[in-house]
Amino acid sequence: MKDKLAIIVPYRDRQEHLDVFVPHMREFFKDKGIDYEIFIAEQTDDRPFNYGKLCNVVVKEIGEEYTYFAFHDIDMLPISDDCDYGYPDSPTHLATNVEAHENKLPYPQYFGGVVLISREDFENANGYSNEYWGYGFEDLDLLYRLQRSDQNEVVRESRRNQKEKIQTHKLGIIVPYRDRPQQLKRFISHMEDYLKDIEYEIFIVEQSDAKPFNRGKLLNVGYKSACDNGCDYFVFHDVDMLPENVDYSYSDKPLHLATHLQEHDYETTFFDYFGGVTMFTKEDFKTINGFSNEYWGWGFEDDDLLVRCIQSDLELDTETTRLDDIKEFHAFKFDGEAHLKEFIPRVGKYLEGQGIDYQIYFAHQVDDKLFNRGATKNIAAKHAFEDGCDYIVWHDIDMIPDMDGGCDYTFPKDKPRHIATNISQMNYELKYEEYFGGAILFSKEQVEKTNGYSNDYWDWGMEDDDLFWRCVLEGYVEESKMEFTTEPQDFISFNGKDSYVEIPCT
């Protein structure tokens, strides 16, 4: 009977490697005269990876016609025709001459990568242990099992002058840029000195027009160029952030690297901050469809990116265990949009604390006309209801709930609920008796009955008073007292000067 080889590959979440491995192996075996088949053993649960157990499962499930096995890491590729995958008289370690290991064993007992074993020898050793979770040690255990059994000597050296190549990753560092030549010069010099052991390429994506800066769009363009140049993972990098002690090696899940900033006493800038320096695999970045192209001016594209990751159920490591100190040598000056930077994490954390399933909608008026709060709120409500929301809260961006207060964001069953009734800037009182602004909850039915806000009030004010009287007409208010809420709702309101620290540009 002719011997038949089963190439057994334990696998999880490494699609880029799989896309390379299978065609490479087919090409390699094309003229070898070996009857073989490749088995990909995928672990689909969330527990730590169990290499040995996956190998054992495949051996158990495949037929007896497979007389020997190659237990094969997915990132190991044979590159020499001398690599001998023929039937082994003794258990043979093939991955002893690996480029990434300087063509020597990484340590004396190393028995991983690619191991060739006959079915008889594997069964005599009782296979791999099932008890090793996480990466490593199952290869050492197998070596000891083979050495303890009454088999031929384990072959630790290559039977020929064969070479294996580890699939190395190539990093694309993508930097959005405009008019910061000194920072760019310093950045490139620093990164060239810093990244000594990683294959990488830096892509500077420059916006040359006079429109507001669009960081997300530039990063998407840079991503495409990096893909075309063979990169399989990416770091989206601000030009004014320099690593001090950061690990840029490949990660199979999104990483936020800029979590310890010098300018912020080596702490995260704010809760849920996802900007500065982020790392993605090619597959994950495609899954979330990249950055939004719709954010002009500084900010929010990183918040949007975080939301995309969450909505795509990607496993995030925003508090990475990597040591990641970033020197921020240019301090940003926060503009008026800093209210939004404060609003997102504070309100989000509050709603999560109440166990509420929510989505935040920002209605941004982009024309030069006077601000129309009513129209923008109606547009946002329309989108929210189309997306399946049962109720909404129309919310001023400078109103955030006191984390120790009792603001009730739950469904307003019988009538709308005004929750901004107890405001710090008004000594925790209403501004005036019929004040109906700040933050108000409406069900879909209540919005339809009142027909929402008027679209006819331009500039600040009056649209909330109009909404109040619409509620009166629909019977939601029995008299001109605020009957929308049974308990005072604690809110704190902040203005621009108090809500953030202005740091002058240098």
Main sheet summary: 5 strands, mixed
Number of separate strands: 21
**Rg, Å, rounded:** 30 Å
- CATH uppermost class of the largest domain: Alpha Beta
Q: Which percent range fits the helix content?
A: 25-40%
What do we call the CATH topology of the largest domain? Spore Coat Polysaccharide Biosynthesis Protein SpsA, Chain A
DSSP strand content:
15-25%
- Backbone structural class: alpha/beta
What would you call the shape? Answer: elongated
CATH homologous superfamily heading of the largest domain: Spore Coat Polysaccharide Biosynthesis Protein SpsA, Chain A
Please, how many helices?
A: 13
What is the count of structural domains? 3
Mean pLDDT, all residues: 77
What's the end-to-end separation, in Å?
Answer: 78 Å
- Segments where pLDDT lies below 50 for 5+ residues? 157-165, 262-271, 318-336, 479-506
Please state how the strands of the largest beta sheet are arranged side by side: 2-1-3-6-5
Keywords: Glycoprotein, Glycosyltransferase, Membrane, Signal-anchor, Transferase, Transmembrane, Transmembrane helix
GO biological process, one term: carbohydrate metabolic process
GO molecular function: galactosyltransferase activity
Pathway: Protein modification; protein glycosylation
